[in-house]
C-alpha cells in the first residue's frame, strides 16, 4: 500500500480541530486511496483534551488512518511532515490590544516557522487558518528561509465558500453553477469578494444579478461579516465550516483546482494586480500538483481597484507592525 502522507494539525484540541481531524482521517483531504498519518500539536495544558480526541479517532476505526502522534514540541511533531495545517492561534481576549495579539501570535508562528524549516519534508506545504491568518503566514514564511515561499498560504477559502452560497441564493442557482469567484486581500473585514469576473452557468455573474446596490451594500458586507454573524447566532466562532474550507483548500492545492474554474488562496504577492510584493494576499489562483499560479489579465474597474487597495493597505500595516516587533 502507498506510504502515508504525514499531515500536521496545530491547535488540534480546538473547535476547528474537532471537525477537521475526522474529515482528514476519513479521506476527504487526500482521497480514498491515500493513507494518512496525523501529527497533532497542542500547548501542554490541552494535551489531556487532545488525548480524548485521539480516543474518538481510534473509535472511528478509519481505514485510512495509519497513525496518530500528539505532542507539544513543534520539532518533534513537524518531523517529516508533507502538509502542515496551522490552525492553533492565540485568540483576541478582552482588553487585548492589536499589538498584543500580533505579538502573542508572532511568538507562535516564528517558532513554528523555524521548526518547519528545520524538520519538515522537502515537499512540505503549509496552510495557515489561525488568525490573523495572512500575517501569521507571513511570519511563518519569513522564519523558514529554506522553504520556498510558494509553499505557504493563508485560508480565504471559507470567505470564498461563503460568497458562493450567498450568490447562489440571490441568483436562485446551486453553488456548482457558479465559477470564478474571487476573494482579494486579507481574511478580515476588508476582504473583497469580487463577482465581476464570476460566471453563473457561463454568464457574467454581476450581469445576471444586475443589482450594483445589492453587490456593494448587501453581498460584500454579508460575506465579510459572516464570521461575526455566526458568533452572534451560535455563541462561538465558525468551526465546521472553517474545517471544511481548510479541507477544500488543502485538497485543491495538492490535487488541482477544477477545470474551468479557479480558487481563492492567500499567497505571497509577486506584485500582480499592483499588490506590494511579499504580502500574503488572497488572489484567484489555479492549482496543479501542489503548485499555484495567480490568474492574470483580469480587468479591474475603479470599484474593485479601491477595495483591492484598501485590503492591501491593511496588510501593509500589519506587516509593518510585525516588522517593528522584530517578528519578520
Ligand atoms: P480554539 O480556541 O477552539 O482552538 C485553538 C487551539 O489552538 C486551542 O486548543 C489552543 O490550545 C491551541 N493552540 C494555541 N496556541 C498553540 C500553539 N502554540 N501550538 C499549538 N496549538 C496551540 O479555536 P478555533 O475555533 O479552533 O479556531 C482556531 C483559529 O482559526 C483561530 O485563530 C480562529 O480565529 C481561526 N479562524 C480562521 C478562519 C479563517 O477562515 N481563516 C475562520 C474560522 C476561525 O475563526
UniProtKB/TrEMBL annotation:
<protein>
    <recommendedName>
        <fullName>Malate dehydrogenase</fullName>
        <ecNumber>1.1.1.37</ecNumber>
    </recommendedName>
</protein>
<dbReference type="Pfam" id="PF02866">
    <property type="entry name" value="Ldh_1_C"/>
</dbReference>
<feature type="binding site">
    <location>
        <begin position="11"/>
        <end position="17"/>
    </location>
    <ligand>
        <name>NAD(+)</name>
    </ligand>
</feature>
<keyword id="KW-0560">Oxidoreductase</keyword>
<dbReference type="InterPro" id="IPR022383">
    <property type="entry name" value="Lactate/malate_DH_C"/>
</dbReference>
<feature type="domain" description="Lactate/malate dehydrogenase N-terminal">
    <location>
        <begin position="5"/>
        <end position="149"/>
    </location>
</feature>
<keyword id="KW-0816">Tricarboxylic acid cycle</keyword>
<comment type="similarity">
    <text>Belongs to the LDH/MDH superfamily. MDH type 2 family.</text>
</comment>
<feature type="domain" description="Lactate/malate dehydrogenase C-terminal">
    <location>
        <begin position="156"/>
        <end position="323"/>
    </location>
</feature>
<feature type="binding site">
    <location>
        <position position="131"/>
    </location>
    <ligand>
        <name>substrate</name>
    </ligand>
</feature>
<comment type="function">
    <text>Catalyzes the reversible oxidation of malate to oxaloacetate.</text>
</comment>
<dbReference type="Pfam" id="PF00056">
    <property type="entry name" value="Ldh_1_N"/>
</dbReference>
<feature type="binding site">
    <location>
        <position position="92"/>
    </location>
    <ligand>
        <name>substrate</name>
    </ligand>
</feature>
<dbReference type="InterPro" id="IPR015955">
    <property type="entry name" value="Lactate_DH/Glyco_Ohase_4_C"/>
</dbReference>
<dbReference type="InterPro" id="IPR001236">
    <property type="entry name" value="Lactate/malate_DH_N"/>
</dbReference>
<keyword id="KW-0520">NAD</keyword>
<dbReference type="InterPro" id="IPR001557">
    <property type="entry name" value="L-lactate/malate_DH"/>
</dbReference>
<dbReference type="GO" id="GO:0030060">
    <property type="term" value="F:L-malate dehydrogenase (NAD+) activity"/>
</dbReference>
<feature type="binding site">
    <location>
        <begin position="129"/>
        <end position="131"/>
    </location>
    <ligand>
        <name>NAD(+)</name>
    </ligand>
</feature>
<feature type="binding site">
    <location>
        <position position="162"/>
    </location>
    <ligand>
        <name>substrate</name>
    </ligand>
</feature>
<feature type="binding site">
    <location>
        <position position="112"/>
    </location>
    <ligand>
        <name>NAD(+)</name>
    </ligand>
</feature>
<feature type="binding site">
    <location>
        <position position="105"/>
    </location>
    <ligand>
        <name>NAD(+)</name>
    </ligand>
</feature>
<feature type="binding site">
    <location>
        <position position="98"/>
    </location>
    <ligand>
        <name>substrate</name>
    </ligand>
</feature>
<dbReference type="InterPro" id="IPR036291">
    <property type="entry name" value="NAD(P)-bd_dom_sf"/>
</dbReference>
<feature type="active site" description="Proton acceptor">
    <location>
        <position position="187"/>
    </location>
</feature>
<dbReference type="InterPro" id="IPR010945">
    <property type="entry name" value="Malate_DH_type2"/>
</dbReference>
Amino acid at each position: 500500500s502507498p506510504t502515508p502522507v504525514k499531515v500536521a494539525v496545530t491547535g488540534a484540541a480546538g473547535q476547528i480541530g474537532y471537525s477537521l481531524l475526522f474529515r482528514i482521517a476519513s479521506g476527504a483531504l487526500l482521497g480514498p486511496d491515500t493513507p494518512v498519518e496525523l501529527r497533532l500539536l497542542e500547548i501542554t495544558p490541552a494535551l489531556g483534551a487532545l488525548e480524548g480526541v485521539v480516543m474518538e479517532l481510534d473509535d472511528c476505526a478509519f481505514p485510512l488512518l495509519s497513525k496518530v502522534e500528539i505532542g507539544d514540541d513543534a520539532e518533534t511533531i513537524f518531523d517529516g511532515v508533507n502538509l502542515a495545517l496551522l490552525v492553533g492561534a492565540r485568540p483576541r481576549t478582552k482588553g487585548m490590544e492589536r499589538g498584543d495579539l500580533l505579538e502573542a501570535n508572532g511568538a507562535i508562528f516564528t517558532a513554528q516557522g523555524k521548526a518547519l524549516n528545520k524538520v519538515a519534508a522537502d515537499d512540505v506545504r503549509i496552510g495557515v487558518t489561525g488568525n490573523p491568518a495572512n500575517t501569521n503566514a507571513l511570519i511563518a514564511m519569513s522564519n523558514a528561509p529554506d522553504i520556498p515561499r510558494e509553499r505557504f498560504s493563508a485560508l480565504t477559502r471559507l470567505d470564498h465558500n461563503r460568497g458562493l452560497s450567498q450568490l447562489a441564493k440571490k441568483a436562485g442557482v446551486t453553488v456548482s453553477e457558479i465559477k470564478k469567484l474571487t476573494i482579494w486581500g486579507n481574511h478580515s473585514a476588508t476582504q473583497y469578494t469580487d463577482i465581476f469576473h464570476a460566471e453563473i452557468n457561463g454568464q457574467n455573474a454581476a450581469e445576471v444579478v444586475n443589482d450594483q446596490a445589492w453587490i456593494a451594500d448587501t453581498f460584500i458586507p454579508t460575506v465579510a461579516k459572516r464570521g461575526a454573524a455566526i458568533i452572534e447566532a451560535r455563541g462561538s466562532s465558525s468551526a465546521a465550516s472553517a474545517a471544511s474550507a481548510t479541507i477544500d483548500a488543502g485538497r485543491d492545492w495538492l490535487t488541482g483546482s477544477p477545470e474551468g474554474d479557479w480558487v481563492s488562496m492567500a499567497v505571497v504577492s509577486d506584485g500582480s494586480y499592483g499588490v506590494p510584493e511579499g504580502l500574503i494576499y488572497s488572489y484567484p489562483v489555479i492549482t496543479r500538483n501542489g503548485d499555484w499560479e495567480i490568474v492574470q489579465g483580469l480587468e479591474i474597474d475603479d470599484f474593485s481597484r479601491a477595495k483591492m487597495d484598501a485590503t492591501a493597505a491593511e496588510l501593509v500595516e500589519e506587516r509593518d507592525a510585525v516588522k517593528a516587533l522584530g517578528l519578520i
